[in-house]
Amino acid sequence: MQRLRDCKLSAGWTISCSPESIVISAISKPSIEVGDKLSLEIYGVQNSAFTYVEALSVAETSSGDFNITVRCVSGVRLTPTLEPARWKVQGTKAILSLEAVSSEAAVTDVSAGGIGLLTREPFAVGTKLDIEVITERSFMLSGTVRHCRPTNTENTFIVGMQVEPIGRISMASWRQMIDPLKKAKPAA
What's residue 117's pLDDT? Predict the structure, then answer.
């Protein structure tokens, strides 16, 4: 989403869509106010949808996320999806290592070749990191930062990385993590 008056970006997951409204969940407080006019792009598996919307409400949920309810104020344009499908992940931690320094992150989403993380540290685009994904069978990834932006919560950042498993066992564990998600509906 992009606020039209100042081009401020916000991101989230589409959690419901009806002819009357669209509800988007964000992991940090968005800089969106009731009445704001936004451009909205929703990524799907085969198509992406683009429209202009008006914010109807912004509310914190019991889990600490924020739900933004919007209504369309223009027609919807469908285009072929250019980004790979992503799946929302909750409750999975990761350890990021850069040389001898490690920091903890929360995994927010995964795709076939990428991972989204919520971190306390900013990372420059192009930075190469080792990522230990903490699951039942923890595994290692090698990743390159593709984007990093601050959230509206102090000292937290959304980091998107292109990743590759390190070794055969990590490849099997990575597939074991994402293959079940592929059968589920991707996040928008």
Answer: 94
